[in-house]
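User: I'm new to structure prediction. If I give you an amino acid sequence, what do you actually give back? Let's try with this one:
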Amino acid sequence: MDLGRLILSRPYYKTDPITGGGPAQYISAEHKLSESWKEQAHNVKLVGHSDLNGWGDAFQIQVSKGICYVAASGVNGHDGLTILDVSDPSKPTILNQISDSPGARTHKVLKINDDIMITNSELRPNLREKYPELKGGMKVFDISDPINPKFLRYVETDGMGIHRPIYDRERQLMYSSGYRDGFDKKILLIHDMKDPANPAFIGQGWVEGQKDGESYSWDNSIVQNEAWCH
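Assistant: Good question. You get back a string of structure tokens that encode the predicted 3D arrangement of the chain. For your 230 residues, that looks like this:
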């Protein structure tokens, strides 16, 4: 069932081809303005818009009690997290912006409860040599003051950091994808969130064939070695 869709009018950037492909195609490639998208709408009406002060394209959004947290990434920037007042949806107003290192992307945000928020800090592969001090993982914020989050701690993970976190409120578990030593590409990561300010890694899952030494469990002639958890 098609409930509705909206495509905003905005510049379209065509990615230059990159030898080797992979994440480089959308993380730090050069882009050229080639044409514009025309606005299209079906069962949806645009009532407001924010350019986030140029802080990237909206990627993941959490809204609660009139406050909107926008984690952004894209060809327009990877600057970090934007906080907006959306109590009047027709006039979204930027209240605060929290930057991340140019060598990382904060494009995932997850509100655990009214006091704790998680963002990812995912390394940009093409810039790892330029920012060797950066470690992949997640950031934990105190949002008891929802407009002015207070950074509490950084939780380091293997590889480039967590991706697409989802919170199981009943079990108080956070699921995400990410890299682990001994595995090929991203697998499922599980963190215990009973103490939301202190995420604790407790488990992992993977597709058979991702672990070092395992044989592929999929038809390699179709997907080659590209089966992984996203």
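You can read the tokens as a compact description of the fold. Here is one thing that stands out. The two ends are 25 Å apart (CA to CA).
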